[in-house]
Specification:
The structure is a single chain. This protein is of the alpha/beta class. Helices cover about 40% and strands about 15% of the residues. An eight-stranded mixed sheet has the order 4-6-5-10-11-9-7-8, sandwiched between helices. Strand 2, helix 4 and strand 3 form a beta-alpha-beta unit. The longest helix is centred in the last third of the chain and has 22 residues, at about 370-390. Bound molecules: glutamine. Glutamine binds next to loops. Glutamine binds near residues 127, 130 and 177.
Length: about 475
């Protein structure tokens, strides 16, 4: 097996027994990136020189006796995490030349354990989108079918994992942006409980929903990266206090007695036959591993998308007001006056989808409409959370599809934003409730992978990772790689 076909934990074993050095591993991935990324455009920025310097430092640390599992491991960061020495674009023309004066907490933590930054991955502009088509730096292609979308907004991260251009990656999930690209590209990703991973230095889209997390080939890989990413951060006012659970320790626990809930609203109209079949096959496999299946109901599911597309744009319109052409980011040429500076800088710097959301957000927050839209959406949000709490009275985890269909073709939904928004129906409720959920490969529809998700109660990531790991020990969907990249 080649390095790019191995899981991160397998590669860590090679670093630990010194059969490969971090410099060698980093060179291997940097070479593949230089050679192949042109075909998928998964990276906005490649950083081979920084990576080599970090790899040398990691090898020196290992030679001095350090043994950490992540020490010297190459990694791809979503281009939403601020990095001090490399530009951070958030896939926007607005930030095309932006060099942050500091590292995001996530970047700082992963640097500290000795991880190596291969580059910054492509995404939808400001994480707004489901296909990575909204990037100002060109679309990312799905390695399984280069005419298909990789999902989004963390489409670059998912695609580089599938193409073997990184062993592990960071992502963020506001309404599905880790899980849905993971599903479309046949990889694993977990959106942690809101507040688990610091948002400091993670460029804000919708602050009450945004959450960083790992994407990898396996649940086990994700568990190890999450353990290094998570933790209380006093610089993030919404960071959850106290210690994080042990994400790795219970991966091998048996599933005997596990109660898996199947929400009837997640199997209704709009779900494709292939995704339905893969989800039910996953349920049957979990049953074989000792779980019991129970029927549950999440009655407010249909209201989640409309509520999200009020709340997320409202928060975005506020968060994105900081891009004014004055302090940082794109500035228009020779402004006539201050107003001209604001309006032209923003008109030139933001893409169509971002502008659409700023307009919707400003509208729903305006006097006279606030109660009718924003306040009502917050009430729906509460009901969605209560649905989940009710369901968890009769099950430990909820199993459902990630998206109604496998990846669609590039350009297929770009002219119909509503159709695009509706495809987020199974992922968005989780963010509205602030719960953790893991997406994992569960089969194929022709050449395209299908993903399913497991949703858990607050801070139940160890259980989700355990269930996904046991499923992956018993199945081989996650080991498949696209033929063109083998
Ligand atoms: N597709 C959703 C949106 O466009 C979710 C994106 C995300 O999770 N960042 O907002």
């Amino acid at each position: 097996m080649n390095f790019h076909q191995m899981s991160m934990v397998q590669l860590a074993g090679k670093l630990q027994d010194k059969s490969v050095s971090s410099v060698e591993l980093t060179q291997y991935f940097s070479d593949r990136m230089a050679k192949y990324d042109g075909q998928i455009n998964g990276y906005i920025t490649q950083t081979p020189e920084l990576a080599m310097a970090q790899a040398q430092a990691a090898d020196a640390r290992r030679a001095a006796g350090e043994t950490g599992l992540l020490l010297g491991m190459p990694l791809a960061h979503k281009d939403i995490f601020c990095t001090q020495d490399i530009i951070t674009t958030c896939a926007s023309k607005m930030l095309a030349n932006f060099k942050a004066p500091y590292n995001a907490t996530v970047v700082e933590k992963l640097n500290a354990v000795g991880m190596v930054t291969l580059g910054k991955t492509n995404m939808d502009e400001f994480a707004m989108g489901s296909t990575t088509e909204n990037s100002a730096f060109g679309v990312t292609r799905n390695p399984w079918d280069t005419a298909a979308v990789p999902g989004g907004s963390s489409g670059g991260g998912a695609a580089v994992l599938a193409a073997g251009l990184a062993p592990i990656a960071t992502g963020t999930d506001t309404g599905g942006s880790i899980r849905q690209p993971a599903a479309f590209c046949g990889v694993t990703g977990i959106k942690p409980t809101y507040g688990s991973v610091s948002r400091y230095g993670m460029i804000a889209y919708a602050s009450s929903l945004d959450q960083g997390g790992p994407m990898g080939k396996t649940a086990e890989d994700c568990a190890h990266l999450l353990a290094a990413m998570a933790g209380f951060d006093e610089r993030d006012s919404t960071s959850a206090e106290g210690d994080r659970p042990d994400y790795v320790g219970s991966l091998n626990a048996p599933l005997t007695g596990l109660k898996v809930g199947l929400p009837k609203e997640y199997f209704g109209e709009g779900l494709s036959d292939e995704v339905r079949a893969a989800t039910l096959a996953t349920a049957a496999e979990l049953e074989k591993l000792g779980a019991t299946l129970v029927d549950v109901s999440l009655p407010n599911t249909a209201h989640a998308v409309p509520a999200y597309y009020v709340i997320a744009p409202a928060e975005a319109s506020s968060n994105l007001s900081r891009y004014d052409g004055v302090r940082f980011g794109h500035r228009c040429d020779s402004p006539k006056d201050l107003n001209d500076l604001y309006t032209r800088s923003r008109a030139e710097g933001f893409g169509v989808e971002v502008k659409r959301r700023i307009m919707v957000g400003a509208y729903v927050l305006s006097a006279g409409y606030y109660d009718a839209y924003y306040l009502k959406a917050q009430r729906v949000r509460r009901l969605i959370k209560e649905d989940f709490m009710q369901a968890f009275e009769s099950c430990d985890v909820i199993l459902g599809p990630v998206a109604p269909t496998p990846a669609w073709k590039l350009g297929e939904k770009t002219s119909d934003p509503t159709a695009m928004y509706l495809a987020d129906i199974y992922t968005i409720p989780v963010n509205l409730a602030g719960l953790p959920a893991i997406a994992m490969p569960a089969g194929f529809a022709g050449a395209l992978p299908i993903g399913v998700q497991l949703i858990g109660n607050y801070f139940s990531e160890p259980r989700l990772l355990n269930v996904a790991h046991q499923f992956q020990q018993a199945t081989d969907h996650h080991t498949k790689t696209p033929a063109a990249w083998a």
